[in-house]
Write a structure and sequence with these properties.
By secondary structure, the chain is α/β, with parallel strands linked by helices. The protein folds into 2 domains: 9-138, Response regulator (Rossmann fold, 3-Layer(aba) Sandwich); 148-360, Rossmann fold. 33% of the residues lie in helices and 22% in strands. The chain contains 11 helices and 16 strands. It has helices spanning 17-29, 41-51, 67-77, 90-102, 119-134, 183-192, 213-221, 278-288, 306-314, 332-338, 351-360, and strands spanning 9-13, 33-38, 55-58, 82-86, 106-109, 153-154, 173-179, 200-206, 227-230, 236-237, 241-244, 250-257, 260-266, 293-297, 318-322, 344-346. An 8-stranded mixed beta sheet has the order 6-16-15-14-7-8-11-9, sandwiched between helices. α3 links the parallel β3 and β4. α2 runs parallel beside α3 (67-77). The chain is globular, with a radius of gyration of 20 Å. The protein starts with 8 loop residues before the first strand and ends with a helix. Mean pLDDT is 90; it is low at 1-5 and 156-166.
C-alpha cells in the first residue's frame, strides 16, 4: 500500500487505554493520522477491515486474541503492514521475532508511560518506524521463493560474473551485511545459504533496538552453520564466526591480523538516525580488512550503508545490493545503486550465491 499520495493512516492496537492515548498523541504530533484504535486482537481484525489503514501498531500481550494471532489473521484476511510494539525485555524478544515470522514487518520498543527528556527521541523513532512500515511492499516476501535459476543482474557499476560452480567454495574472506526494515528474515536466508566450510568472517548490522540484537544473534546461531554472537568490544573473530552489531552501539573493524578481525564498539551520536550504523562498519572494514571483502546492502529505508559501500568499492572490495522485486523497502539498495556503488543487484534468494562468487573471484 503506497503512502506517497498523502498522510499516513494508522490504527493503534493496545489493551491499555492510557497506552492507546499516548501512542495516538505521539503519532498525531508527528503528522500521522490515527483513524481508529482497538483494545484487543479481535477488535483489531475488524477495525483494520473497516478502515483499511496504511499501517497498524500492534501490542503483543492482549486478552481474547494476542498480537501474534491478530497479525496472522490480518495478513490472511486484509493484508496490512503491522509494526509490533514490544516491551524492552528478553522474554518479549522471542515473541517479537515470532510476530515477524507470522507477517509483521518490523517492531519498535514500546514507549514508557512516564514523561521524560527521552520522549522527543521516542516520538521521533516511533513516527519514523510507522512511516517506514507503511511503505513496506507486502508482496516482496512472496517473491523470495527461489526459482530454478537465479538471474544475476549487473549494476551500472560493473558486470556480473557467472554462477558459482557446484561444490566450489571460496577460501575465506570477510562479509558485511547491512539491513533495516524487512531485514531479519532476509539476513537469516543469506546466512543459511553460506556454508561454514567457506571459512568466512561475517558481520551483520541490522537496525534493531538495544536488547533485541542479542536474541537475534542467538536465533541466527541456531539456524545457520556459523557461530553467531552479539559483538563484544575488543574481541577477535576468525573463519566460521559471525557477529551482530549490538543495538545502541556502532560497530567498527579495528584491525585484521593473523586471519582474525578485531572489533570495537563505540557510542557517539546516531548516524542517519540509527545506531548501529552500517556506514561505520563498512567504512572501517574498507580501511583495515586484508584479503577478499564483500559488502551486501539489503532492504530498508534511507541511505545508511551507501557511503560505506562506496568506501569498500574504492578499496577494491565487492558490493551487492538486494533487488527491488524482493525488497520490502527498496530504499538503501536503490540509493547505493544510483550512486554507482554496487557491482551486482540480486534477489534475496540469490545473495548467498553472489557472495560466494565474489569471494571466489
Amino acid at each position: 500500500m503506497s503512502v506517497a499520495a498523502g498522510t499516513t493512516r494508522a490504527v493503534v492496537v493496545d489493551d491499555s487505554r492510557f497506552m492507546r492515548t499516548l501512542i495516538t498523541k505521539l503519532l498525531e504530533d508527528g503528522g500521522i493520522d490515527v483513524v481508529a484504535d482497538a483494545e484487543d486482537g479481535v477488535a483489531a481484525v475488524d477495525v483494520v477491515a473497516e478502515h483499511d489503514p496504511d499501517v497498524v501498531t500492534m501490542d503483543i500481550e492482549m486478552p481474547r486474541k494476542n498480537g501474534i494471532e491478530a497479525v496472522e489473521e490480518i495478513m490472511s484476511t486484509h493484508p496490512t503492514p503491522v509494526l509490533m510494539l514490544s516491551a524492552h525485555a528478553e522474554e518479549n524478544a522471542d515473541v517479537t521475532f515470532e510476530a515477524l515470522d507470522r507477517g509483521a514487518v518490523d517492531f519498535v520498543t514500546k514507549p514508557g508511560g512516564e514523561v521524560t527528556s527521552e520522549m522527543p527521541r521516542v516520538k521521533r523513532e516511533l513516527v519514523d518506524k510507522v512511516r517506514s512500515a507503511a511503505a513496506v511492499d507486502l508482496t516482496a516476501r512472496e517473491r523470495t521463493a527461489a526459482p530454478t535459476q537465479v538471474t544475476r543482474t549487473p549494476s551500472a557499476a560493473g558486470p556480473a560474473g557467472g554462477a558459482v560452480a557446484p561444490g566450489s567454495l571460496p577460501d575465506g574472506g570477510t562479509v558485511i551485511i547491512g539491513a533495516s526494515t524487512g531485514g531479519p528474515n532476509v539476513v537469516e536466508e543469506v546466512l543459511t545459504g553460506l556454508p561454514r566450510e567457506a571459512g568466512l568472517r561475517i558481520l551483520v548490522v541490522q537496525h534493531m533496538p538495544e536488547g533485541f540484537t542479542g536474541r537475534f544473534a542467538k536465533r541466527l546461531d541456531g539456524r545457520c552453520g556459523y557461530e553467531v554472537r552479539e559483538a563484544q568490544d575488543g574481541e577477535r573473530i576468525g573463519p566460521g564466526q559471525a557477529r551482530v552489531a549490538p543495538g545502541g552501539s556502532h560497530l567498527f573493524v579495528d584491525d585484521d591480523r593473523a586471519d582474525r578481525l578485531r572489533l570495537r564498539l563505540r557510542g557517539g551520536d546516531r548516524l542517519h538516525g540509527v545506531k548501529p550504523a552500517i556506514d561505520h562498519t563498512m567504512s572501517s572494514a574498507a580501511d583495515v580488512v586484508r584479503g577478499p571483502l564483500t559488502t551486501v546492502l539489503l532492504t530498508g529505508m534511507g541511505r545508511d550503508g551507501v557511503d560505506g559501500m562506496g568506501a569498500v568499492k574504492r578499496a577494491g572490495g565487492a558490493t551487492i545490493a538486494q533487488d527491488e522485486r524482493t525488497s520490502a523497502i527498496f530504499g538503501m539498495p536503490k540509493r547505493a545503486i544510483e550512486a554507482g556503488h554496487t557491482d551486482e543487484v540480486l534477489p534475496a534468494h540469490g545473495v548467498a550465491e553472489g557472495i560466494l562468487h565474489t569471494l571466489r573471484s
